[in-house]
Design goal:
about 400 residues, elongated, about 45% helix, six-stranded parallel beta sheet, glycosyltransferase activity, Glyco_trans_1, Rossmann fold, Glycosyltransferase involved in cell wall biosynthesis, transferase
């Protein structure tokens, strides 16, 4: 390990001499955040840390994966309403007994909402508590909840550098912990010719790819309109993600309106993104600069690690990942600029693409590798548990 085992940890952990961490998340129905949590929990140094996981129910296919991992899983109501106040405090006290019973030293929440009953329970139990800020959502009805949640936290993991300036300019309990990808899983791979054949594409057809949870903030209508305006003709746009919702149906309608039925492919949800990355000539992330925006988009990192040239919008999270590649960024919502940049990439020569591909792979390996993300978490936990930490 890169750090010495601090003596205060040995003293506080007692006979086990391990830091017991409880990771909490509402569910594993949608696997994005669940996978991120699991990769961190399962990657921790087991000589130092003992991870546990808690969620609100046992539904979802990915829950079965967690169960088989060997990490203790608790199905437990770790959140509750704080109104009315007396009833809310009683519920927090009940949850605090759970934390104490299992002897957790620290609780790390992957909850995506502004709940603050969980940190109140941790405070009652005298257990360190913190959370990962996963997107740029803050205002509106949830603003006070986020403020209280942040005030009660002992640590806050920030997934991009803009979060510090925008939300926490004066606090010392934040840690910059961007997402990472497993470079043993995502790397330059041979083209999946069978997939191209399944999709009815010949060997000369180029592929522009997007992988996303299909919600309006992702700006996929901008990408579709930009695709309509590109000059390069022998190319298809592949949209990977669950399109069985209102937004997905609106995108399908837009494709029909623009006459792009033969050039835009909706794949639906898939667990094997690597197959599509292997045939991609370009990956585009057109997220809008509004609402929750992005935290640290892992789909972009997976494309970069796979050596696929990328274009992203100039928004928080993406700016961190493409900091060394300003030409790979366009203004969010700018259809004409995005179309021009797509054409530039598609018409570029092979040597340029190979060089850019190598640069992207190196950037992920040096700055956004999963092992680096895990080490950042481990150091955050150690620093949070130091007696002098404030």
């Amino acid at each position: 390990m890169d750090y010495l085992y601090p003596i205060f940890i040995i003293q506080m952990a007692g006979k086990s001499k391990k830091i017991k961490i409880l990771f909490t998340i509402p569910n594993f129905d949608t696997a994005g955040s669940g996978k991120a949590l699991f990769k961190i929990a399962s990657g921790l140094d087991r000589e130092v840390f003992e991870p546990h996981i808690a969620c609100l129910h046992n539904r979802g296919e990915y829950f079965k994966v967690i169960q088989k991992s060997g990490i203790p899983v608790h199905v437990f109501e770790f959140t509750s309403s704080v109104r009315p106040v007396l009833k809310g405090l009683y519920q927090c006290w009940r949850k605090s007994r759970f934390f104490l019973h299992h002897g957790f030293h620290l609780v790390h929440s992957f909850h995506y909402g502004p709940d603050y009953s969980e940190p109140l329970a941790a405070k009652i139990a005298g257990v360190k508590w913190g959370f990962t800020k996963k997107n740029m959502n803050w205002g509106g009805a949830s603003k006070n909840g986020w403020k209280i949640r942040s005030y009660l936290a002992d640590f806050i993991a920030l997934q991009n550098s803009d979060m510090k300036n925008e939300f926490y300019p004066d606090t010392k309990k934040t840690f910059y912990v961007p997402r990472g990808v497993d470079t043993a899983e995502f790397f330059k791979a041979a083209e999946d010719k069978d997939l191209k054949q399944e999709l009815g594409l010949d060997k000369d057809t180029k592929v522009v790819l997007n992988v996303a949870n299909m919600v309006p903030v992702k700006g996929l209508e901008v990408l579709i309109r930009a695709f309509k305006n590109i000059v390069y003709h022998k190319v298809v746009l592949i949209l990977v993600g669950d399109n069985r919702n209102e937004y997905g149906r609106s995108l399908e309608n837009l494709v029909r309106e623009l006459g792009l039925e033969n050039r835009v492919i909706f794949t639906g949800k898939t667990l094997n993104v690597k197959r599509f990355l292997s045939i991609a000539d370009l990956f585009v992330l057109p997220t809008l600069n509004e609402g929750r925006k992005e935290g640290s988009p892992v789909a972009m990192l997976e494309a970069m690690a796979s050596g696929v040239p990328v274009i992203g919008t100039k928004i928080p999270g993406v700016k961190d990942q493409l900091k060394k590649f300003p030409d790979a960024q366009v203004d969010a919502g700018d259809i004409s600029s995005l179309a021009a940049r797509i054409d530039q990439y598609l018409f570029s020569d092979r040597d340029w693409r190979l060089k850019f591909s190598d640069q992207l792979c190196s950037e992920v390996q040096e700055c956004f590798d999963l092992k680096r993300e895990i080490k950042r978490h481990e150091q955050m936990y150690i620093d949070t548990l130091k007696p002098t930490n404030k």
